[in-house]
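Quick illustration, no need to memorize.
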Amino acid sequence: MQIVFAAMFGVVFGLGLLVAGMSNPAKVLGFLDVTGLWDPSLALVMAGAIGVGLLPMAIARRMQTSLLGLPMQLPWRGAIDRRLVLGSALFGVGWGLGGICPAPAVLGAALGRVDFLIFTMAMLAGMALYELNRKHDPQASPSVSPSEADA
């Protein structure tokens, strides 16, 4: 049942990306070009997503299990360290150069766009390198929250 819900919400999310124009690199680059012909429409999409997500996140924080009976796995706040800042900068540079962010990249690759497929493969390679480094670096950020690690 978990896979069915994950697929269903993934399709809805993908359709939202298509409708919002997030799968169009020119639209994304227009949003990032704040010194030229700035297109603020994606900021409105982001603000709308935050607005829609506020109440469900507030409710989820009070729950121990999901509606499917699975343990809640919510983001936790960790320290802002060098690795986080560098990773965020690398993400931003990739987004700015390619005009593509991860979810639309996967969507475009699934739709057969070669440029999105290349971007997705590079993104997956970067994720694999991170995991390799994390396994060999005792200072690396944990993949689970401290409370999950204690369980």
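The chain has one domain: 2-143.
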